[in-house]
Amino acid sequence: MSVIQEGPGRLGTFAALARISPTISEIVLQLLWKQMHSVEPLLRLVGGKRKEKSDGLWLWSLDSSHLGRFAIYARRVRAICADGKALKSQHKRAFTILLQSCVRIKSPVPLLPLLNHVELHNQNDCLAQFLGGLFCPALQTLILPPHMSKFPQIQNMMSHLQTLVFIACPTQTRSILNSLSDHKSMRHLTLSYINPTAMAPLASLHKLVSLTFVITTQSSFIKEATSFPKNSIHTNILHIQVELDDNSPMPTTTGFSAVMLLLSSHSIRSQGLSIKIPWYHPAKDTMHFFNCLASLASDNPNHRFLAWENLECFRLQMEWNEDQMNMGYDVLQMPCDGLSVLYQLFFLTTLELEDLVRLG
């Protein structure tokens, strides 16, 4: 039975076993259909009268008797992890008819009843428009491509989600945040950062293992003074990822400023802090950032960031560009005592600063 192992190189063996050995056929079929890169193979399992037009569109006339074979295979699908598009535009009409048929015959189960993981990476993936027809109580993970032109309405699909990646405009993010307060099972969450007040519902998520904030250099919260939430956010690991806007010039200190404004605007309790900035900073700016971080570790009750009480791991990543060598080593290189201020983080046991070590 050693051949029954998952792996892309074994799919041909799986398919052969499913056809010649009834004894292990069901086991093999479960493995073959467990993870799909596209929903289009499922469409070919639908019976009924099908006509393919010259432009590649499929038209169907379906009733309940035509969906039997589809249902047998659909219940085996646990994950959709798209390499490209899980549903291309030429098959969108066929998928629409399939969903409409399920509604018309009042199917008691979702289209993919045991689906627990959806991961899309293409902003134009048509499957995003049909997520409502796929969702079921088993769904635990939803990863959507960032900044989609048209995001799906997922607010009523989040009851059992444990992992969500949703990077969108402020309006769409606020809608998701308002829905999160009613769903306590979230464990891994990635969201666009808006402002401290908007992020307040995150304090109600007491099972968070990792929380990732994605902020852009042109985010409005960097420039606006806002009120601060009173309740603390709890997570094992806090990730802060700064992104450059497409058409913005590379700034010098905006990344660190945005991170500091975020940290000083919240009471966040965390064991790990990871910061990623998409460009390298001069040593003086980095040391100033470390001083600002250490200042938040003081006993001053006016400082809202309380993560230092439990902080054990700190990681800073600054992406390196060879063009920055024009700045000169004397500007980029950290002095020997450049990290001494971090000694104020008393409980810190792990420090990852690979780029700084390389230049030092």
Q: What would your notes on this structure say?
A:
By secondary structure, this protein is of the alpha/beta class. It has a domain of 199 residues. The chain is 26% helix and 17% strand. The strands form three sheets. It has an eleven-stranded parallel β-sheet with strand order 1-4-5-6-7-8-9-11-13-14-15. The radius of gyration is 25 Å and the shape is elongated. The protein starts with 10 loop residues before the first helix and ends with a helix.
Quick synopsis:
The chain is an alpha/beta fold and 360 residues long.
Q: How do the strands and helices of this protein lay out in sequence?
A:
Blueprint lengths: L10 H10 L4 H10 E2 L3 H4 L5 E4 L5 E4 L6 H7 L4 E3 L10 H13 L12 E3 L11 H4 L6 E3 L19 E4 L3 H11 L7 E5 L17 E7 L16 E2 L2 E7 L10 H11 L3 E2 L2 E6 L5 H13 L17 E6 L10 H4 L17 E3 L1 H6 L1
Parallel strand pairs: 1-4, 4-5, 5-6, 6-7, 7-8, 8-9, 9-11, 10-12, 11-13, 13-14, 14-15
Antiparallel strand pairs: 2-3
Helix pairs in contact: 1-2
